[in-house]
Every structure is written in structure tokens, then in C-alpha cells.
Recover the amino acids of this structure.
């Protein structure tokens, strides 16, 4: 998975003191990892907020089984990681809920059906969709994905789903929409997948961070435990309404 490789490389590269350019070939939208659209549209904007600058572009998508996706990425040096304090949404509703649906080596209607199913479910939950796109992409194997996201200064929520043999386009769209709606309605400011991705950075931040999540995942617990062994950070979780707040306190003497 290209996105999992980037998750491992970006923290080290950003703190290395020099810029890094990468060209990666492999899976971009595969099981058990973030889709490329999630990485580009949710993870990277959140990293930018804490001072970590990374760009990534996919010229080709990689689906199971052939992979073959192509991504170019660049990481700039980061002098200091800023804390992240996303524990309360502002008075305005989260801006611009966006649906992005893709398919490769499949009829265009597959992406359109995914998008329509996602929009229909969200609207049934009282969530307005500001924009929705459906497009075909270059790939070696047939495949599809959908991303639902909303990002602004105080809210980074995203949910994705990928197609599979025997899985209807409608199921793909609804799957992503159900997860997004649950996070949105919990009042969370950070989705559960972003939380464990960004945790290693926050363990090295200048000061304490606090983020509000739909729930505390085992991935987040593991990510913070491993980070604490390397950095000496401490952390705790506390319920807050329908959501959970995670507090991360970097060690006074960081690596």
C-alpha cells in the first residue's frame, strides 16, 4: 500500500532536516489501508495544520490484484511540530461535505452509483452534501473507491470505502456514508483513522494536543503506546458527550 508507506516515511522525512522527493508504485486503493483520496484530502490538510508539509499526486490508481498505481510525493523539512487542539467544533456547521467517487477499468456508472448511494444516505441523515464528483481513472485492474470528507480549521472528518468483486456500487457508497455519518453526528472533530495517523507527530509537538474522536480505536492506543516508548510522551482518554477526547502530552525533553 502506497499510503501506508507514506504514513511511515513522512514523519521521519519531515524531521530529517532536508526535503525528500519520492516516486512510488503499488496499491493506492486497497484493503486495510487509507485510499489515496483519503490521504490527499484528509491526512495532508491535517498535517499542514501542524506544520508538516507534504504533497502527493497520483497519476495512476493501483487496485487489487495488479496494483501498479503511480504516486509522486514530496516532503519538506519541519522545524517544529505544532500542537493540534481540535476538541470542540465552532458554532457553524462543518463546511463543505464532499463526495469523491472513482472507478478504473469499469463503466462510468459504477462511480456515479457509488456517489448517488453515498449522497442519498447522508441526506437521509440530515447531512447536506455540498459537492459530489464521479470520475474514471487510469488503472491496470478493475476497481473503485469513494471518499466522503469535510475539512476546515476545527474539523477533519473523512471516511472511505473500496469496491470488491461481488460488492455492489451502492454498498460501497453506503458503507462510507454510514461511517462518516456516525463520526459527524458524534460531534467529533477528528475521525478515528486520522487520529492514529497523526498521533506520532503529536507525540513530538511543541506543547500538548487534544483531539475529539468518535471513539478510541485499538489502532490509536497502539500508536500512542509505541510513540510513548520512543518519545516519552504521555496520554489519556476521556468521554465527552457522544465522543472521546484524547490528550497527548509530549515529553519535556524530546528526541
Amino acid at each position: 500500500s502506497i499510503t501506508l508507506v507514506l504514513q511511515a516515511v513522512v514523519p521521519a522525512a519531515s524531521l530529517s532536516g532536508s526535503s525528500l522527493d519520492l516516486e512510488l508504485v503499488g496499491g493506492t486503493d486497497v484493503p486495510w489501508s487509507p485510499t489515496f483520496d483519503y490521504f490527499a484530502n484528509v491526512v495532508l490538510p491535517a498535517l499542514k495544520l501542524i506544520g508538516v508539509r507534504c504533497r502527493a499526486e497520483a497519476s495512476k490508481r493501483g487496485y487489487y490484484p495488479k496494483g501498479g498505481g503511480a504516486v509522486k510525493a514530496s516532503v519538506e523539512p519541519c522545524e517544529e511540530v505544532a500542537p493540534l487542539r481540535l476538541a470542540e467544533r465552532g458554532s457553524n456547521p462543518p463546511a463543505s461535505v464532499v463526495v469523491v467517487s472513482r472507478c478504473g477499468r469499469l463503466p462510468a456508472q459504477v462511480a456515479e452509483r457509488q456517489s448517488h448511494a453515498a449522497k442519498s444516505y447522508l441526506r437521509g441523515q440530515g447531512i447536506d452534501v455540498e459537492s459530489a464528483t464521479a470520475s474514471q481513472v487510469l488503472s491496470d485492474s478493475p476497481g473503485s473507491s469513494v471518499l466522503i470528507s469535510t475539512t476546515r480549521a476545527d474539523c477533519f472528518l473523512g471516511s472511505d470505502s473500496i469496491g470488491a468483486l461481488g460488492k455492489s456500487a451502492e454498498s460501497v457508497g453506503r458503507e462510507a456514508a454510514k461511517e462518516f455519518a456516525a463520526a459527524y453526528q458524534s460531534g467529533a472533530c477528528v475521525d478515528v483513522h486520522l487520529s492514529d495517523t497523526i498521533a506520532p507527530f503529536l507525540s513530538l509537538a511543541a506543547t500538548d494536543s487534544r483531539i475529539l474522536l468518535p471513539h478510541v480505536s485499538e489502532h490509536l492506543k497502539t500508536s500512542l503506546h509505541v510513540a510513548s516508548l520512543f518519545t516519552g510522551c504521555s496520554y489519556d482518554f476521556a468521554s465527552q458527550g457522544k465522543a472521546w477526547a484524547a490528550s497527548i502530552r509530549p515529553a519535556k525533553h524530546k528526541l
